[in-house]
Structures are given as structure tokens and as C-alpha cells.
User: Which sequence fits this backbone?
């Protein structure tokens, strides 16, 4: 199992930026394939971005070109740099290990028009 703590959420205006962080602790292999998900108001949790052990990344079409996922292996931390934010990005953002169970508490992102 892995323990995950997300941070960095907040309120910004449309067009602004935020950087989310996810601190992971547990077995090292749990961070070999990490993902960000989000829960938009009234919708099911959805995939946002992923990064694997080799740094290969993948993004949902809705965030491609605006969001960047990265990792600092020395700090066991995953980041999500979000730029050109839109009101429809408003929601709770979670990080998740694809290899190990457990969710963090999430961090709220609110984008106003």
C-alpha cells in the first residue's frame, strides 16, 4: 500500500496556473506508475495524466497541451503543472499509484471565469 498526500490546490482565475504536488510514501515500487485523476462536480472521477518509471507520460485529451506531469524520484513526489486553466477544470484532484492501492484526500482546484 502507498500513502499519498496531495497539495497545491486553490482558487485562480481562468487562464491562470497552479502546480499540484503529491507526496508518496510506502514501498518504492508503488511510485513506478503514477496517475492524476480528478472529480468534476456531478461527474465520476476521470483520468488526467500518468507518468511511468521511465518518464513516459500520457494525458487526457481535455488537458493535453495545458497540463504537465512530472516526478522527483529523490523526493518521492509527483507534480501536475496546470496552465491556461478553464472553469471546467474545477474539481478535486487526486494522485494514484497504478501499482498499489489507496487514494489520497485530494486537493480542491477552483477556476473562476
Assistant:
Amino acid at each position: 500500500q502507498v500513502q499519498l498526500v496531495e497539495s497545491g490546490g486553490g482558487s485562480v482565475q481562468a487562464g491562470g496556473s497552479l502546480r499540484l504536488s503529491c507526496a508518496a510514501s510506502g514501498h518504492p515500487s508503488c511510485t513506478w506508475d503514477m496517475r492524476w485523476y480528478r472529480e468534476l462536480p456531478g461527474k465520476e472521477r476521470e483520468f488526467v495524466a500518468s507518468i511511468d518509471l521511465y518518464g513516459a507520460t500520457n494525458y487526457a485529451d481535455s488537458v493535453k497541451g495545458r497540463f504537465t506531469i512530472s516526478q522527483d524520484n529523490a523526493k518521492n513526489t509527483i507534480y501536475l503543472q496546470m496552465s491556461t486553466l478553464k472553469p471546467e477544470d474545477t474539481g478535486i484532484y487526486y494522485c494514484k499509484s497504478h501499482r498499489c492501492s489507496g487514494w489520497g484526500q485530494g486537493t480542491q482546484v477552483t477556476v473562476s471565469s
The chain has a mean pLDDT of 95. The CA atoms of residues 34 and 97 lie 5 Å apart. The two ends are 39 Å apart (CA to CA). Strands lie at 2-7, 10-13, 18-26, 33-39, 46-52, 57-59, 67-72, 77-82, 91-97, 107-112.
